[in-house]
Write a structure and sequence with these properties.
Blueprint: H1 18-32, E1 37-41, E2 50-54, E3 60-65, H2 72-87, E4 95-100, E5 106-111, H3 123-135, H4 147-158, H5 160-167, H6 173-186, E6 196-198, E7 207-210, E8 213-217, E9 224-226, H7 229-235, H8 243-257, H9 259-280, H10 285-298
Length: about 300
């Protein structure tokens, strides 16, 4: 097959499909003059589609791509934002190449960083992560892509559909949504600031630790501006958190712009998480809805 023949792709592209990933790597090699080949899929969450690559020199790198062609502009702007964040000292792997494959799927190849993710948010882990989150302060990385604007719009009504779906999903869904509503109402009008860097998915499996330090914050494609309280709120929704980890993260998150900002961000992140699990993995719902309801209640003033 000559390089210019675009092969027929399956109708619904799966990020786990090695055929598509291989084609993307071939395109990337052609465009950037690199020599990568696919090694294996990397362990991951729901949409596992991150691939380990090696090049001719046996150096490792990581391929990420999206089956959503519409996300190409966000990939390209994220590449610039990642570079600016790294210039400011933020510990995220360099993007070695970014582009759009002939199939229209956006991709990027990033530095491989050895390390492993913590499984529990203890005080020790929280201390490491809070120092990373504090580096995000004032790094207004991409005002056009603003997480505080997103949160404001969702909380002003755009989240109603998800709220209703979760409330109607049975089990503890109703009690969970009532707890979020009570939390949001208890703080009245809240202004979300927007001058920080926001990672957008700051969870334990998106952090790599090594030798007791944060080696890298990964899965950063959705980064933008907003309030870093959003990332603190995300950490407060992780599955496994102990009391000391909760206390430290909550206190630091409330320091950012007050307890109301943290609470509003928490309500939105918790709802989006439960709604995602409801759609992708409903068997897990009973495991997370109860604890998140309790945490929402614990954040009441
Ligand atoms: N730069 C990297 N260096 C080393 N390991 C990485 C790197 N990027 C990703 N990984 C590994 O691959 C796993 C999946 O990567 P990542 O978190 O970026 O994708 P994901 O969670 O599957 O993505 P998404 O949430 O976009 O579906 C990580 O948990 C980590 O183990
Ligand atoms: Mg991830």
């Amino acid at each position: 097959m000559s390089f210019n023949d675009v092969p027929e792709l399956p109708h619904i592209a799966e990020r786990t499909d090695p055929v598509i990933a291989r084609l993307i790597v071939a395109d990337a090699n052609h465009t950037h003059g690199t020599s990568y080949h696919l090694v294996e899929q990397m362990n991951a969450g729901f949409q596992a589609g991150t691939w380990l690559l090696h090049n001719r020199e046996n150096e490792r790198a990581v391929l990420k791509w999206s089956p959503n062609r519409g996300s190409a502009p966000q990939f390209l702007r994220a590449a610039d934002a990642v570079e600016r964040a790294r210039d400011a000292g933020y510990p995220t792997p360099a993007w070695l190449a970014v582009g759009i494959a002939r199939s229209g799927f956006p991709y990027h190849i990033q530095q491989y960083v050895p390390g492993s993710s913590p499984s529990r948010l203890t005080a020790e882990v929280a201390e490491l992560l809070l120092s990373v989150l504090e580096q995000q302060r004032g790094l207004d990385i991409d005002p056009e892509h603003c997480w505080s604007r997103y949160a404001r719009n969702r909380l002003a009504g755009e989240w109603d559909h998800a709220r209703q779906a979760v409330a109607g999903s049975g089990g503890e869904g109703g009690r969970f949504v009532a707890a979020l509503d009570a939390l949001v109402a208890s703080f009245g009008q809240v202004e979300l600031p927007s001058e920080d860097l926001v990672h957008g998915d700051f969870r334990l499996d998106n952090v790599l630790l090594r030798w007791g330090r944060v080696a890298a914050v990964i899965d950063i494609e959705a980064l933008g501006s907003g309030t870093r309280a959003f990332d603190y709120a995300t950490l407060l929704t992780v599955d496994d958190i102990d009391q000391a980890g909760w206390n430290l993260t909550r206190a630091a998150g409330e320091q950012v712009a007050g307890p109301g900002v943290l609470a509003h961000c928490f309500a939105l992140v918790a709802l989006d998480l439960v709604d995602f699990v409801r759609q992708r993995n409903p068997a897990r719902l009973p495991l997370i809805t109860g604890p998140l309801t309790d945490r929402a209640t614990a954040l009441l003033p």
